[in-house]
Specification:
Bound molecules: 3-[3-(1H-pyrrolo[2,3-b]pyridin-5-yl)phenyl]propanoic acid
Shape: globular
CATH superfamily of the largest domain: Histidine kinase-like ATPase, C-terminal domain
Largest sheet: 9 strands, mixed
Number of domains: 3
CATH class of the largest domain: Alpha Beta
Number of strands: 24
Structural class: alpha+beta
Helix content: 25-40%
Length: 653
Amino acid sequence: MDNKKSNTEYNARNINVLKGLDAVRKRPAMYIGDVSSRGLHHLVNEVVDNSIDESLAGFCDKIEITIREDGSVTVQDNGRGIPVDIHPEEKRSALEVVMTVLHAGGKFDKNSYKVSGGLHGVGVSVVNALAEWLKAEVKRDGKIYFQEFRKGVPVAKVKEIGKAGKNESGTKITFFPDPEIFNTTEFKFSTIAERMRELAYLNKTITIIIKDERNGGEEETYHFKGGLVEFVQYLDENRQPLHKTIYIEGIKDNTPVEIAFQYTDRYTENIFSYVNNINTTEGGTHLSGFKTALTRTLNNYAYKNKLIKEGKINLTGEDFREGLTAVLSVKVAEPQFEGQTKTKLGNSETRSAVEMLVGEKLTDFLEENPSIGKIIIEKCSRAAEAREAARKARDLTRRKNALDTMHLPGKLADCSITDPEHCEIYIVEGDSAGGSAKQGRDRKFQAILPLKGKILNVEKAKINKILENNEIKAIISAIGAGIGVDFNEEKARYGKIILMTDADVDGSHIRTLLLTFLYRYMQELITAGKVYIAQPPLYKIKKGKEEFYAFDEKERNEILKRLKVNGKGNSKEPLDEKNLKGVSISRYKGLGEMNPEQLWQTTMNPETRTVLQVMIESAAAADKIFETLMGDDVEPRREFIEKNAKYVKNLDI
Ligand code: 0RA
């Protein structure tokens, strides 16, 4: 620090502050999950969450996020502004306390539904600690205040730097993430925009603007006065809803509950649940309260109105959720988060609040809208019939041993060890690549399952058809952990499921089909981080006896530059074919072109390969991607692929 004098002034309090910030800098992952791109974006979410808290308290209706030309990010809101008066105990400004003391934000604020759980709600002091620099500007009481920090430590005390308008207030925080902490400091517009869109749906009074001032200058404004209803309609953009969206809202036992849902012509269940704006991917009491109320209310309604005939198949909870798209959002004052990723709500009072509210309001709705009631019960009865048919088909195939894990599929070349933690399975496109993979692999821990052609698009098929598909049957029995509601991730026979397809359009289509299947029927595999995408090289470069592999064009040109064969080797420059001086470059068209040894060396050897881990950052966003990629409508798919060409290539969903 350039201000040496201040060193002598450190009192016990300052030392404690430094200790706190130091703990965050020593173990950043404890506070923000990790130091990759994901953790980096948590910083932005954390600052925005504080603005959202202001909005939940009723003081803020606009948030503006800007990615600046220098790579820093600004989050500006029109809330009350962080207080700047001297904190009586801390003897420093409240702003400085909020910025430097862990979890200080909440100390001042009596508003009850604070975002707190999972990785959120760690406090903006964590962002400050992990920022190379951070500048806070506060408008309050007709004045503008300013304070700057480096790696969490104040550069100087807060000072007044100007006048603000009469009724103007708000907080503006600009920061640059510390490159000593993060693997990457590059913010992605699409990653931030996705979360902001979600927040805008969940908080219908708020307007969120996001701007990218780097090349391109993208900008989006999110404001949805229809809230959850619009969210559900957005999720079902490419599905056919069977009726108008149902919306239930109310406060029960001090718990605000909001739900929008509709049935579509599809067969999968898509329920997204939130607690204090946090996506509870592991569900919890609020979700089970909703499911219970839905099953009970619809069942009662159906029998009371004689919509289901006596003696017919009983409808199960699952039947009542086939083709259902729903978003459930509750606010809980003191949420208890449980589960592996701390995204499962544990509060039991929330279960009964949701269950009672949905029970009452849905009963009323059905009484008032009998035609919709009839449509829903018909849809659910058909689901029950299909479930029966599927059960029969499954029994049949089980007898034929196809789904039986005791009898592995004939095409599978299994590995010799059986401890799932150390085993991996390559699901490979095509028999010829499958053959190379079988020869090239380390048979001790690597299993190979070759697939013929394209698998079924599960997004558009009923469960009984899905279970008749040979390629899908082979995948299910090889993994050996069941499917759908019966899926048990702990039974998976492999710790890594690696998808290996050609680096062409067909290959990426097959990969998407496989991912769709895994997402819809073995989602826990993805949430557990067990699904990977192999990265075969695109180019082989040969000079004399030396061979090099390149995974993309940029890398190819870098290798050529190192070999000093192609002028300046600028990666953006087109290849000068005449200037290659005894170097040969071949472009792999498919996996099948590689011999077993090459395939092992480049794509399968754990020591040298790169594999991409498939992650679901936001379940709603992932659903949307699969729906767009796999649904009926061609136009949105084309648009999506054009807009997200890079995104689809990396599939970092
Ligand atoms: C502490 C107390 C109050 C508000 C805030 C912090 C606050 C923090 C952030 C962070 C970003 N935007 C923010 N807006 C507000 C309550 C203020 C009062 O009682 O006037």
